[in-house]
């Protein structure tokens, strides 16, 4: 038995005709008939019978044809996987992330390149709103964003894969007078200069906070994490950010201390992968997300 014979019996079963099958397979009818006769002799069973209705499988033939279809399906899967792996070798992936994911992204890229050295990566840091817009405009392929739990239903054109959950806390330099506190009241926060990262949910938090508590002493807003870190190091101000970012992001190391806000209720924020629908099946993005999870240092959901 060989692959050609397996293809032959499946094609005959489809067409119920030796002539039609031979035409579709680009071989002569006599060659096809001889090949099937050889296969039947090898197996010791009759696979087809001829009738007015065409070339019809026998009871034993139906079993053989079923197995033949399974074999051809598996062969196609092998071909598809091999082709996909070949495509990865020469592919490009554009990934955008909020600051919290950058360290894990860099490690994932490094590991990925060991197996697929010719894959090209473009890694960009942005806030969640810009990432969503870039995905819509197809400037990026994959994003790591933060989104409020209640807003997940708004992502109609996207596929979102949640990774972990967090909330907004206060971040202070390790030598700041507040660094020894485990929590801080809303009113006390009004006394300190604030530097803010340009992130949608942080901005929404600030708006809600000022509406309910009072105006903060805002120094500046930036999308540069290093500028915020310098401000905190030198004790010039404090900041707001995601709790897991202060605890795990490599840029902050142990230099930034997170402090809970004791008396301000807030909606949970979900961190996760986001892609446009119909792009989540990309093999390179699937493989990269797997590598990322091996380097993701935060507790996952579920």
Instruction: Give a short account of the largest sheet.
Output: 6 strands, mixed
CATH superfamily of the largest domain: Periplasmic binding protein-like II
Strand order, biggest sheet? Answer: 8-12-7-11-9-10
Report the helical percentage: 40-55%
Q: Hey, roughly how much beta strand do the residues contain?
A: 15-25%
Sheet/helix structural class: alpha/beta
CATH class placement of the largest domain: Alpha Beta
Which word captures the global form? Answer: elongated
Uncertain spans: none
CATH fold-type name of the largest domain = D-Maltodextrin-Binding Protein, domain 2
Q: Helix and strand string, N-terminal first?
A: HHHEEHEHEHEEEEHEHEHEHEEH
How far from one another are the termini? 49 Å
**Number of structurally distinct domains:** 3
Q: Using the 3D structure, state the CATH architecture of the largest domain.
A: 3-Layer(aba) Sandwich
Tally the beta strands: 13
From the alpha carbons, calculate the radius of gyration and give it in angstroms: 30 Å
Average pLDDT for all residues? 87
Number of helices: 11
């Amino acid at each position: 038995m060989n692959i050609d014979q397996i293809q032959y019996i499946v094609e005959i079963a489809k067409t119920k005709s030796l002539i039609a099958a031979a035409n579709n397979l680009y071989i002569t009818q006599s060659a096809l008939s001889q090949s099937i006769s050889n296969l039947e002799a090898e197996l010791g069973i009759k696979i087809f019978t001829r009738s007015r209705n065409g070339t019809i499988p026998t009871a034993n033939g139906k079993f053989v044809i079923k197995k033949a279809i399974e074999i051809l399906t598996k062969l196609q899967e092998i071909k598809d996987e091999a082709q996909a792996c070949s495509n990865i070798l020469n592919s490009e992936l554009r990934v955008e992330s909020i600051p919290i994911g950058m360290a894990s992204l860099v490690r994932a890229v490094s590991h990925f390149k060991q197996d697929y050295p010719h894959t090209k990566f473009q890694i960009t840091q942005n806030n969640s709103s810009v990432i969503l817009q870039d995905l819509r405009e197809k400037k990026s392929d994959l994003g790591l964003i933060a989104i409020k739990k209640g807003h997940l239903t708004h992502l109609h054109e996207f596929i979102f894969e949640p990774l972990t959950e967090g909330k907004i806390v206060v971040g202070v330099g390790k030598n700041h007078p507040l660094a020894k506190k485990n929590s801080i009241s809303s009113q006390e926060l009004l006394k300190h200069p604030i530097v803010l990262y340009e992130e949608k949910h942080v901005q929404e938090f600030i708006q809600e906070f000022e509406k309910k508590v009072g105006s903060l002493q805002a120094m500046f807003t930036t999308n540069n994490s290093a500028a915020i870190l310098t401000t905190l190091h030198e004790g010039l101000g404090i900041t707001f950010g995601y709790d897991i970012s202060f605890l795990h992001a490599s840029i902050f190391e142990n230099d930034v201390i997170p402090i809970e806000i004791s008396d301000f209720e807030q909606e949970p924020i979900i961190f996760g992968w986001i892609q446009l629908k119909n792009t989540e099946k990309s093999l390179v993005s699937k493989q990269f997300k797997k590598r990322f999870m091996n380097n993701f240092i935060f507790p996952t959901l579920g």
